[in-house]
Write a structure and sequence with these properties.
single chain; 563 residues; alpha/beta; Urease, subunit C, domain 1; Diaminopimelate Epimerase, Chain A, domain 1; five-stranded mixed β-sheet; globular; binds zinc ion
């Protein structure tokens, strides 16, 4: 295997073990030995055939087969069964010693491209459960980057989980961040628009640009040109060039690989205004993918990226959407990078006075996939009724249109959407800050309905990317404060894992090649640090990959998987 890759992805051990989930290293060294020339994926001949034996390999196939061994060649599974027979010369064989293996996790709705374009050495805090966890994660990050390099966390976490239940949620203070990273400026910003916090070095930088910072490091949040908006904007202007974005893209994907996420369906960003009124969800929707494409061209893209095009126009003529449908290709690319449809917005608003119906009609006429999101008690009604109207003119029943999040969807609208051939993307984002009245989605009702459903994170602003947190919420109904908020709608671990793997193949239109461990399918799998199926609930959120394979290549390895 390629030593450079394994070193770059190896989990940092030490004080922060179990908390730091493989934040990538500072340097994105070249791994030129593989790439698009290797059969269109990193599973090229350089890695050679691979065999994993003596595992508990949950294939998630139609019979829920649990196998003991798999062999992999040229990026695909060759045999799946009790042994690998004679896998041939040059095969690297790994003895899993009973470890649990699942298919590579597919996240059918997130914002990984935004995460890759964050200013600074972006450092997820979604796995922190205390202020000292934050300090450990930041200290570990600081030790791997140059002195003076910015350590940043923009979105994906909530102060609700930075402090144990029973204590009042709060940010780390300036003094606490100084203690953790005295030689690096730090910036931690919650959700779309703060509030935020910083350390002494960061405070000096922001105040030098006229942004008010409290003595405790606090920076006020709010939409528009709030102090948080000013701070994020200053960092974007100062720190982001193309090489920094490429480094961020590699880091973001590596972070996902440490959690076992091998495929991301990105859902775009709000178009940047290029001002301090941009929030965490703003980027240049027309250029933000280019660093990822460049990483792929270098042969360094180790996880699969699927790209939806977000359109959010208020003009009823939706000129940009019209041009997109006229000039772009859907489902175009290779096994590692491929375009998708339009989403997670097709226009501004959903109501009768918005361009939603007109936009949906254009997408249907072009024969494209549409994906939209629902957060309120009324938007899914508008959306599904518009889909029904459009379907009478331009049938959408084969186009796999999706409504995402759906916290309040009713059985009636699930079945009406099902009749249109549609699907529902579910997520556990309520985990962070949900309550018994702001809960959902109704996992149990939706899974029982039989509609095409799949699982996603909706990371990186409002929610974490970590799939094990979402699985924890879906199976327990508990939020980050330990409050039961989604009672009666829990599903089993088997069910939610199926939503995150086999059932998500449908959302990519790749169910024949991704989502299960079966001969002939693309070889994506994850060897876990604990047995997902039997570990106590409280340890679910701490599940990590000890070895991730994507396209037949080992793309993350901690050294714990056995030899
Ligand atoms: Zn989203």
């Amino acid at each position: 295997m390629n030593g450079r890759i394994s070193r770059r992805n190896v989990l940092k051990t030490g004080a922060a073990a179990g908390v730091v989930a493989a934040v990538g290293g500072a340097g994105a060294g070249r791994a030129a030995a593989f790439g698009p020339s290797g059969g269109g994926s990193p599973g090229g001949p350089d890695d050679g055939p691979l065999a994993l034996v003596n595992g508990r390999i949950h294939t998630m196939d139609a019979d829920n087969t649990v196998a003991r061994a798999v062999s992999i060649r040229d990026g695909r599974f060759v045999t799946v069964g009790n042994d690998v027979g004679n896998p041939g010369p040059g095969t690297r064989t790994i003895n899993l010693r009973g470890r649990t293996v699942v298919p590579g996790i597919i996240d059918n709705h997130n914002h990984i491209v935004l995460m890759g374009n964050r200013p600074g050495f972006h450092t997820p805090l979604e796995n922190a459960a205390s202020i000292s966890d934050v300090q450990e994660i930041y200290a570990a990050r600081g030790s791997g980057i140059p002195d003076g390099g910015w350590i940043t966390t923009i979105g994906g976490f909530h102060i609700n989980h930075l402090v144990p239940p029973g204590e009042t949620p709060r940010f780390p203070t300036l003094a606490e961040l100084d203690e953790a990273v005295p030689d690096n400026p730090a910036y931690i910003s919650q959700s779309f628009s703060g509030p935020s916090t910083t350390n002494s070095r960061g405070k000096a930088f922001f105040e030098g640009r006229g942004t008010p910072v409290g003595d405790d490091g606090s920076i006020a949040g709010g939409f528009g040109t709030s102090p948080t908006g000013q701070a994020t904007f200053a960092l974007r202007q100062t720190l982001l060039d193309f090489e920094a974005r490429k480094r961020g893209a590699v880091d973001a994907l590596n972070y996902g690989l440490g959690l076992g996420v091998t495929t991301h369906l990105d859902q775009g960003a709000f178009q940047t205004t290029g001002t301090a009124s941009d929030g965490a969800a703003h980027e240049d929707n027309f250029a933000m993918h280019l660093p990822f494409l460049s990483v792929h061209e270098d042969g360094e893209l180790l996880a699969r990226l699927r790209i939806n095009f977000l359109h959010m126009e208020s003009d009823p003529a939706t000129p940009e959407l019209v041009e997109r449908l006229r000039n772009a290709f859907q489902f175009f690319g290779d096994d590692f990078v491929r375009t998708g449809g339009i989403g997670e917005f097709i226009a501004q608003g959903t109501g009768p006075s918005s361009p939603f119906l007109a936009a949906a009609r254009r997408v249907a006429e072009a024969g494209w996939r549409a994906e939209v999101h629902s957060l309120s008690t009324t938007d899914f009604v508008n959306e599904i009724e518009a889909f029904e109207a459009v379907n009478k003119e331009f049938p959408i029943t084969d186009l796999r249109w999706v409504v995402a999040h759906v916290p309040f969807i009713t059985e009636e609208y699930v079945s009406r959407h099902q009749a249109l051939g549609g699907g529902l993307s579910l997520t556990g984002w309520r985990y962070l800050a949900g309550s018994p009245s702001s809960n959902g989605p109704p996992f149990r009702m939706i899974v029982d309905s039989g509609i095409n459903a799949g699982m996603s994170s909706d990371g990186m602003q409002i929610a974490p990317m970590n799939p094990w947190i979402h699985m924890y919420y879906a199976t327990t109904g508990l939020n980050a404060r330990g409050v039961l908020i989604n009672d009666g709608q829990q599903i089993s671990r088997e069910e939610v894992l199926r939503l995150y793997t086999r059932d998500n193949g449908w959302f990519l239109r790749e169910e024949d090649s991704l989502g299960t461990i079966e001969p002939g399918k693309l070889a994506d799998l994850v060897v876990l640090n604990e047995d997902y199926f039997t570990v106590p609930d409280e340890r679910l959120r701490r599940i990590r990959s000890v070895l991730t394979v994507a396209g037949g290549r080992i793309v993350h390895e901690t050294g714990e998987a056995g030899r």
